Amino acid sequence: MEQDKLYNNYTVTGGKWLHIATVSVLWFALILQIGIAIPNYLQTGRTLAGTLVQLFSFFTILTNLLAALSMTALFNINSRLGKYFFQPHVFSAIALYITIVGLVYNLVLRNLWHPTGLSKLADELLHSVNPVLFVIYWLAYMPKANLKWTQALSWLWFPLIYSVYIFIRGSISHLYPYPFLDVDKLGIPQVAINSLFMLIAFLLVGFLFVWINRIMVKRKS
After folding, report:
1. How confident is the model over 157-210, as pLDDT tens digits?
2. Where does 69-118 show beta strands of DSSP type E?
3. What is the reported pLDDT for 9?
4. Is the backbone of residue 14 left (phi > 0), alpha (psi -120 to 50) or beta?
5. What dihedral angle (degrees, nearest 10) is formed by the CA atoms of 166, 169, 173, 175?
6. What global pTM score does this model have?
């Protein structure tokens, strides 16, 4: 079976150690970030519930959590979750989302704030190290499939649902996780343009990931 081949290859290629390292760094970064953020938010007068809602309103946190859960599930490839995340179109989708996390932060958001100490460590892990580790693992060890080009469109469901949630929440609380989505400061027309650019980015990178799947399948055949 394909699952058996994947895990048998670990003993030869060292994929097992990359798997363990990636899972460890993903969870460490999340725990570190949440551990730093909760006391900081509570000091501003927010409730614990409000703090957790704010934290899990960041696409970065949600995507890193999804990546951590998927990699953890692969330790038991025969479990229901393991089989689900093992599917090429599912794991490729998560690779797409975490790639966007890295691109948007490093191209758009990096110069907007300058964390120090452990906050900087968490910041770099979540936005730079984790995306690279996850994509390398995806490229090197996960099975690829001859995906249809329309698969890139189906991968948009996650960012679209996220956007709907962010704008509904923002209209009520006036809190937006990212400055380019802040309707109160930028206005609806500018945020609509920014959202369109983000949608195009997801779509273009999604097409790239479909192409990588297809070309790697052809090379193996």
Report:
1. 999 999 999 999 999 999 999 999 999 999 999 999 999 999 999 999 999 999
2. none
3. 52
4. left
5. -10
6. 0.92
